[in-house]
Amino acid sequence: MSESAVLQAGMKPSAWIVDRFVVLTALAGLGVLGGLIWLETAPFMVALFAIGTVLGMALYHGAFGFTAGWRNLVLKKRGAGMRAQLMLFALSSLIMVPMLYSGQAGLVGAVAPVGTSLVVGSFMFGIGMQLGGGCGSGTLFTVGAGNIRMVVTLVFFIAGAVLGSIHLPWWLDQPGFDPVPLVNTFGVSGAIIVQLLALGLIARWVNRVERKAHGTIERNELLWKGQEHGVLRTLISGRWPFTWAILILAAGNALTLGIGGSPWSVTFAFNVWGAKALEAVGVNMSQFEFWQWDYPAMALKDSLLTNIPSVMNFGLLLGAMLAAGLANRFNEASRNRPQRRPLLAAVVGGLLLGYGARLGFGCNIGALFSGISSASLHAWIWFACAFAGSFVGIRLRPWFRLPE
Amino acid sequence: MDKAYSRGRILIMLGVILALIVVDHLNSPTFAFNSGQGNVQTALTQRDESACAPCGAPCPSTRN
User: Fold this and answer.
1) Rounded Cα gap, residues A248 and A244, in angstroms
2) Does B32 touch chain A (CB under 8 A)?
3) C-beta atoms surrounding A201 within 10 Å
4) What is the DSSP letter of A176?
């Protein structure tokens, strides 16, 4: 509904208050860090930093959380969040699979081995999502928006990721096999069709669950319906319909692939941050096998400003902060002092998230979203195992006094 | 309505994070390269096409 329509009905739209301090601080942070990246690295890194910023704003304004979407389906039997994720995967598949397999040199998909490590890691990650209160991107954008409990989750996410990196070689020695790109079996068009069919089947199941519980399917969140304000104000200050976030996230991942050479990932940066912190206090990380592999070794040795996931994560944090300031909701979730058990859940959840993400080759973004966008079998196994883990995590939430 | 945060704490937090990023960068091969030091391998030009996973892990078949 437009603002004029609201006024005609005799109602007054709520005043738009912007938190100037938060907005100016976020803009200053973006300017300083963006300038540093511009001066010290290359223009494409600045572009990736900007993409990360827009993705952070989209995640915040769209309230695009994988964790809540899964929980709403299990507990409330509502499927809008889940359907939004499926639509995102379908759109990205259509865009990114042809890009990756077009024969253009320098593009690497998010494909990974299938085995014990993947199954155990993604299951642990699923539990961690529900206890920690977010996935990789969810944790980051809520931290950017000032949520103090999520800062605890992030710190232990990083700790868990480093521990996972130390143990990953052992897990890789357990039964497993090499990556399975679906394109090798079905071709580019075939892989896209197979994935769309699979996503369609899941959507059908989600709809059935919702219809069985409520009689009808709620589709309001997917459409421009019942918005309190006009398009421009909604765009700047939220809350976006899911469809807007879907378009931005799909475009952002495709641009990341085109500019950075590989799809969007979040959690590898946590490994690097944690390992650098340990090195700073005297731990020699290169004694561990993970940190001897070419890519992690180079990332550990060089500047964070040259590490694509780190640069995009910085953008995401500041983007979410900017969005929260524009919506005048910065730190809104942290007005009350955190209770002991929810804090314990953040610690346990964070550790499970980090450890699970490393064993499972990423989070909902790097393994699931980018994995399906690369038509890799491992992403589907990750999806199933993380959903099963999430189910367990949902059952554990009441003990930690976490709200439904 | 009262703000749900302390401005000072936010500025300190962001300042600390920025300082850590800058210190890390000043000690990096990329900064050395930018300062005119040759023969330095930086991560900016590195691609990870040979790895089996985005984190750089080798393939299970290679490990066997």
Assistant:
1) 6
2) no
3) 11
4) E
Q: What's the rounded mean pLDDT across residues A56-81?
A: 93
Burial of A172 (0-12, 13-18, 19+ CB in 10 A): buried
pLDDT tens digit string along A131-141?
A: 999 999 999 99
Q: Which of A111, A91, A90 is nearest to A101 (CA)?
A: A111
Enter the tokens of residue A128. 């961690």
B4 contacts A332? CB cut-off 8 A: yes
**Contacts (Cβ under 8 Å, ≥6 apart) of A137:** A55, A59, A66, A266, A316, A363, A364, A365
Distance CA A182, CA A8 (A): 55
* Alpha-carbon gap, residue A61 to A56, rounded angstroms: 9
Between A233 and A285, whose confidence is greater? Answer: A285
pLDDT of residue B48: 60
> Which residue has 């979203």 as its token pair?
A369
Task: Judge: A106–B47 Cβ closer than 8 Å, yes or no.
Answer: yes
Query: Are the C-beta atoms of A79 and A73 separated by less than 8 Å?
Result: yes
Which of the pair, A242 or A8, is modelled with greater confidence? A242
Nearest in space to A357 (alpha carbons), one of A169, A117, A176: A117
Question: What are the chain A neighbours of B28 within 8 Å (beta carbons)?
Answer: 301-303, 305-306
Residue B11 DSSP one-character state: H
CB A367, CB A121: distance < 8 Å: no
Summarize pLDDT for A190-235 with one digit per residue, the tens: 999 999 999 999 999 999 999 999 999 988 667 766 667 788 888 8
The type of residue at A111 is V
Nearest neighbour of A330 by CB, restricted to B5, B31, B61: B5
Distance CA A168, CA A85 (A): 29
Provide φ and ψ at A269, rounded to 5°.
Answer: -60, -35
Averaged pLDDT for residues B8-16: 94
Residue A365 per-residue DSSP state: I
Residue A69 and residue A72: Cα distance in Å, rounded?
5
Residue whose tokens read 């469809």: A243
Residue A142 has which token pair?
């809520």
Q: Calculate the CA A319 to chain-centre distance.
A: 14
Q: How far is B24 from chain A (nearest CA, A)?
A: 6
d(CA A100, CA A374): 7
Report phi then psi at B56, rounded to 5. Answer: 95, 5
Q: Which residues of B touch A111 (CB under 8 A)?
A: 53
Token digits for A19? Answer: 């938190």
pLDDT digits (tens, 9 = 90+) for A376-392: 999 999 999 999 999 99
ipTM over 0.85: yes
C-alpha pair distances (Å), A341 with each of A349, B4, B50: 12, 22, 44
